[in-house]
Amino acid sequence: MYSTDQLRNHFTAVLNDNWQDGFTIPCQGLYPFQWFWDSGFIALGWAHLDMDRAKQEILALLKGQWSNGFIPHIVFHNPSDSYYPGPEVYRADLSEHAPEIPTSGITQPPVTGFVLQDMFRISGNSQELLFFIDSIYDQVFANHQYFYENRDPNMEGLVYICHNWEAGTDNTPVWDLIWDTFSVPEYQLNRKDTKLIDASHRPSDAEYRYYIHLVELFKSWNYQDDLIAEQCPFLIQDPLFNSMLIASNRSLIWLGELLGRDQQVEQLRAWTELAVQGMNDKLYDPDLKGYVYYDLRGERKLPYLSSSSFAPLMAQIPSASQADEMIGHLCGGRFGGKDQENFLCASFDPLSEWFESSRYWRGPVWINLNWIIYKGLRNYQLNTEAEQIKKDTLDLLTKYGCFEYFEPSREMNEGLKAGYGGNNFSWSAALGLDLLN
Ligand code: 9WN
After folding, report:
1. What spatial distance separates the first Cα and last Cα of the chain, rounded to whole Å?
2. Which of 27, 31, 166, 172 to mutate to test the pocket of ligand 1 (most atoms within 8 A of CB)?
């Protein structure tokens, strides 16, 4: 058990240990490079401690941006052989848009826009920070433009992801339904994660073969977006991914108004209006009372609840009455449990037959999703639920430390082994710090 001061010191120590002279790794050994959405959450932690590092974190990420605006999910700033797949598997250089620095060839939820607005708030609206934001605004805007111009084939305001790693929620059980639609070769894997972490808490080899196969397809198409849109067997409209993009649109609008960027603001407003409509018309499931995935290739809704179902609250997408319906799942509902026997918020529906409480994104609680949901609940003044999820998040971090993911069941938390995956995990520390401030 830590006191608040000890907890703050612990979070600070984790970030300092993972700082690499210009950017922050998510976790020693397990994730030795810079990741896209991690960098955003981590920058928020730095914003409370050292604004210069927060800025460096964002600049380091943008070094990996491609000439078409795409931001890759990993920037390989340094060599390391403790992670698979590395740059030699991705071969981003096959794309005509890739930069000099080695990167992956897939992306992740675009959190940078709303992170910049939060950094500005944390800075006390400093003019200096506004100059910084102005200096990179075009790059972040270009990333949004890339999404809306290349990944919305039906022009419905919803962008697709073409790889499960793009979701950030790598092995949610919903992807099993997509893997069932095609088969893959018996690739020889060179996994490092299962040598570092209990394999029963990670995705299986069979799943990894699908992950690698998709990368092989992209390489065979030189990462051309039109070929991916036409042929990729994994093409999903994801409520979490689109919510992060819409929340970032809204922040870029707010910042753009301060910066007098009228044309970009107008474009962002048009994207946002269509996107909110698309989210509510297509991804909200009134029977399940939550947002779900849509499989563009199979033209079907994937009607299952996960922590991603609540992410639209953060981007102010649901109406007040939809938000009221959705929160029925949290305190006293299927996620919290009738007697609140679970910590909020399991990454997958705890009542589903596919729920696995200790395996990665198939059940455990993740701190970044909790933070996103907390922010969303606050947007709607749903204070009871907001306070519950904040308390659960800080309780887990206090009890076990900065693990990557956690056991949702309170009863199983009575045993000692309730923090899973990597320890001293950066975004757990960074967002814990943000919740304490
Ligand atoms: C693949 C870095 C990343 C997170 C993801 C998380 C995990 C990578 C992996 O680690 O994914 O991107 O190798 O398992 O699922 O959300 O960004 O922390």
Report:
1. 19
2. 31
Residue range 404-424: mean pLDDT, rounded:
85
| 138 assigned to active site | no
Ligand 1 contact via 69 beta carbon (within 6 Å): no
Nearest-10 crossing angle of helices 112-122, 127-150: 170
pLDDT of residue 418: 83
Q: Is 156 a catalytic residue?
A: no
Comparing CA positions, the residue from 171, 204, 205 lying closest to residue 187 is 205
Q: Which atom of ligand 1 is nearest to the CA of 427?
A: 18
| CATH number 2.130.10.10 given to 4-436 | no
Show the CA angle centred on residue 242, arms to residues 168 and 252, nearest 5°.
Answer: 110
Closest residue to atom 10 of ligand 1, CA basis: 31
Residue 128 Cα to ligand 1 middle (Å): 33
98-145: pLDDT as tens digits = 999 999 999 999 999 999 999 999 999 999 999 999 999 999 999 999
